[in-house]
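Hey all, quick one. A colleague (J.T.) asked me to put the zinc ion job into the tracker so the inputs and the structure tokens live in one place instead of scattered across chat threads. No bug as far as I know, just bookkeeping. Sequence used:
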Amino acid sequence: MNPVRMDNMTWMEYEQRVKAGSVVFLPCGATEQHGPHLPLGTDALLASAICEDVAREVGGIVAPAISYGYKSQPRSGGGQHFCGTTSVEGATLSSLIRDAVREFHRHGVRRLAIVVGHFENQWFVTEGIELAMREIGEHSGMEVMRAEHWEFCRKETLDAVFPDGFPGIALEHAAVIETSMMLHYYPQLVSLDRIPGHGPAQFPVYDMYPARTAWVPSSGVLSSAKDSTSEKGRLLVADVVAGMTKAVRHEFALDEQRGGQPSL
Ligand code: ZN
Ligand code: MN
């Protein structure tokens, strides 16, 4: 049994942990093509693994991931024309988040951290939180953090991981950050020998509808993942886990004296 996963607990164990004030983490990913070398579940898998590492530090609980995300965009995820990319409407994602927040509130959860692992989800997740908070009321005692995990990567680390310059997070789809993090957490799911050799995709600063699929490399990879290593993944993940742990402890005023053990 994994001691931080909600889906591994009985409802009584879960209730006891919630009553003791545990932070609940909700990973929010996508089912989306990630090139020939990474699995379709990459965004939800990474968000879940990061949540589990942070939850172990703060005695938290990780809820099952929301594994369908908002529509993949050509300039940040390759777009909707790839087989396997399975997306939901913005209103659907917002409703899912709203319902989940409402349910956690009903359980008695007062500290909820929603960790976004798919670039296109950000504003629809925000909308879901806003709608739930409006219903629950500002004085319910529930507080929600929303975070994109990659925002916790420090500049020093990005400089070390990208000696030739960081191409920017949007072009990082299936590229060095995600591939290195996957090598760290799920090496058995990465096919290094299938990484395409082409350079970064060249996009204009605007979008066109219907999407100009010719703008997107046919591999689905937006910039090369060639320089990915598990060591880079370890460095990036260390930043993210440390930064998120610190933020969660600070914002939810967790008692540092418990030494990070579950407050059972
Ligand atoms: Zn991704
Ligand atoms: Mn994505």
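Adding what we noticed when we looked at it: Helices lie at 11-19, 42-58, 74-77, 90-107, 122-136, 155-161, 176-185, 230-251. Residues 34, 42-43, 173, 178 surround zinc ion (ligand 1) (CB under 6 Å).
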